[in-house]
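stage 2 :: seqdesign
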């Protein structure tokens, strides 16, 4: 076998040094993760984080974010303003260093900031490097200074452009279309981030406006109650079991911890943790301290009051968190994050801070609020009984499987391959469509599981009810992962889980029920990108020996225009109307089909939508429908 040599000579002359911000432009993904829309929005977050850090330092009370026409971003704060004096070591203005040199900023032990988030000072320079142009204006209480850059390089050096008695920093930039796949900002995505930061920084006023529309839409947020109001916001469509939000805060050795939580009549848990305003998706020492102390204190109180008898087992961590919405926020001087993405906090001292705070304040709260304490403990007891019932159901299922009386679901048409890198399962609505799918599939890698009738709405059910449901049990068994706390992604039998339902209201309902089930009890399936929605055609257009399929009204009209007069249009009312060959050609053939991956960019928003649409409260759902009915185009598709 011959080898292709990439470089004939490899010596000292082949070693390259990327100067200035060239490295950022060369490998943007290393600094912002991706050049997709997510990376584009990350630019805004980096500049916003710098303003937030000014607030954490006690010098900023208001931040304004504007999306200007042509997708120009403007962020202004009333902080101290980035220093404009000449840095002695480098001989250039400090603001120039911040925007043109990586790892330059006031967050590296220079005394400028006690705690900070963002990219530890590299954010401003990275945004500058990835922008077509960027302008920074600094007000120092006497003058207004401005400097301009294009693709990271100075084009107009720092100069005085006006006088002022105010202080603060304004940054205006246009992202580089040579770098990003899109320059179109999503107002709702930015609004979510801004709202989150407003909750985490009590009393800070943040305003966001989208000036691309006429009239412009804007939102001003300031939450004096901080994370207490964050909990109320998340629970706005849920039924709280006790009226007040339990809140506590404490400080030790320069580190500050805030905790707020409230229980609802739901069965799922929402726990969000933050470190220096960064959302720690994978938890860390602050979450560990909270969970451990919560479990210990609830069990201790229950035994002290005789609710838990000597013979009773302790309530588990999962029991005491059922139905809980909690925010845990810590701010530390030297935050240690595990991994490049900063999704897990590693500071060991934070565990002690959170634990001691919970030990003191939760005991105090229970003693002062015995009614709420009893409600919380009763709910945990009910969760414990449901967990035991679920355990018995699991054991029964396992024993049946081991004895050979129960294996894979009887209606499952399995595939020949076993490696889930290549396999996929279609969960199909109805026996008729299931029959066509079984005949039309490629048996080597495609499995078919027909479902019939309406399944359980798990939004209103505990896990023990799920195990006993005859519609959901075949799905659990076929996928092989188990559910809830016992879920194991490593045991997944199929790499793609594809929901294939009719393109009508009933089909939409089935898709929603299945997605609710996956979200509540098999969430890693969605998080890791294993769940898809099949897209069957709505129309078949025929003319003589020609046939074409359309997946929307617009596509139908386009095909009709191309094929001319004399076309016969067939509107599919259900998957069962297609024969096996048609189903394969339109919906199952990997070379021709369209399938949509289900993603979960924001767990809080997803939780809110599922609660709103599938929960028990009718009034919020009615309001949602009334507000959004104007956007519906094809109800029965």
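stage 2 :: out
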């Amino acid at each position: 076998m011959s080898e292709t040599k990439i470089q004939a000579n490899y010596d000292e002359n082949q070693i390259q040094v990327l100067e200035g911000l060239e490295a950022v432009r060369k490998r943007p993904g290393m600094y912002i993760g991706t050049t997709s829309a997510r990376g584009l929005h990350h630019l805004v977050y980096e500049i916003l984080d710098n303003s937030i850090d000014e607030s954490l330092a006690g010098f900023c009370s208001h931040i304004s974010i504007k999306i200007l026409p042509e997708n120009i971003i403007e962020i202004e704060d009333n902080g101290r303003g980035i220093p404009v004096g000449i840095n002695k070591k480098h001989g250039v203005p400090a603001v120039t260093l911040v925007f043109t040199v990586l790892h330059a900023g006031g967050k590296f032990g220079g005394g400028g900031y006690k705690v900070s988030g963002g990219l530890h000072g590299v954010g401003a320079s990275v945004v500058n490097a990835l922008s077509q142009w960027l302008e920074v204006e600094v007000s120092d209480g006497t003058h207004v200074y401005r400097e301009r850059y294009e693709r990271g390089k100075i084009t107009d050096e720092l100069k005085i452009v006006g006088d002022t008695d105010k202080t603060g920093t304004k940054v205006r930039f246009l992202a580089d279309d040579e770098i990003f796949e899109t320059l179109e900002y999503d107002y709702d995505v930015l609004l979510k981030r801004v709202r989150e930061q407003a909750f985490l920084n009590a009393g800070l006023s943040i305003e966001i406006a989208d000036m691309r529309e006429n009239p412009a839409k804007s939102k001003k947020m300031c939450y004096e109650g901080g994370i207490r109001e964050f909990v109320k916001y998340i629970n706005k469509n849920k039924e709280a079991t006790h009226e007040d939000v339990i809140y506590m805060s404490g400080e030790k050795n320069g580190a500050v911890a805030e905790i707020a939580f409230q229980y609802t009549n739901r069965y799922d848990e929402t726990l969000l943790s933050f470190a220096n305003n960064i959302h720690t998706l994978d938890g860390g020492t602050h979450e560990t301290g909270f969970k451990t102390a919560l479990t210990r204190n609830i069990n201790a109180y229950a035994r002290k009051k005789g609710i838990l008898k000597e013979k009773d087992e302790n309530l588990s961590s999962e029991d005491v968190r059922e139905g809980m919405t909690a925010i845990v926020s810590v701010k530390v001087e030297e935050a240690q994050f595990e991994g490049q993405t900063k999704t897990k906090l590693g500071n060991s001292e934070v565990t002690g801070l959170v634990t001691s705070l919970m030990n003191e304040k939760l005991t105090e709260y229970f003693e002062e609020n015995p009614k709420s304490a009893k409600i919380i403990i009763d709910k945990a007891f009910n969760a414990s009984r449901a967990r035991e019932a679920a355990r018995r159901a699991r054991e029964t299922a396992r024993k049946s499987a081991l004895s050979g009386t129960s294996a894979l679901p009887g209606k499952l048409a399995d595939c020949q391959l076993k490696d889930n890198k290549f396999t996929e399962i279609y969960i199909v609505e109805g026996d008729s469509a299931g029959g066509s799918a079984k005949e039309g599939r490629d048996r080597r890698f495609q499995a078919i599981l027909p479902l019939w009738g309406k399944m359980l709405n798990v939004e209103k059910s505990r896990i023990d009810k799920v195990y006993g449901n005859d519609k959901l049990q075949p799905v659990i068994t076929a996928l092989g992962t188990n559910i809830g706390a016992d879920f194991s992604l490593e045991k997944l039998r199929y790499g793609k889980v594809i929901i294939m339902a009719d393109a009508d209201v009933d089909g939409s309902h089935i898709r929603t029920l299945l997605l609710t089930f996956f979200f509540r009890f098999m969430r890693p399936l969605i998080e890791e990108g294993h769940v898809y929605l099949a897209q069957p055609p709505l129309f078949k257009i025929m003319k003589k020996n020609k046939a074409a399929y359309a997946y929307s009204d617009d596509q139908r009209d386009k095909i009709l225009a191309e094929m001319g007069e004399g076309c016969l249009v067939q509107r599919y009312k259900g998957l069962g109307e297609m024969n096996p060959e048609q189903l394969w050609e339109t919906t199952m053939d990997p070379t021709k089909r369209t399938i949509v991956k289900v993603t979960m960019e924001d767990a809080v928003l997803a939780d809110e939508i599922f609660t709103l649409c599938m929960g028990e409260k009718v009034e919020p759902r009615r309001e949602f429908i009334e507000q959004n009915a104007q956007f519906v185009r094809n109800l029965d598709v």
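stage 3 :: structure notes
- The two ends are 55 Å apart (CA to CA).
- The mean pLDDT is 85.
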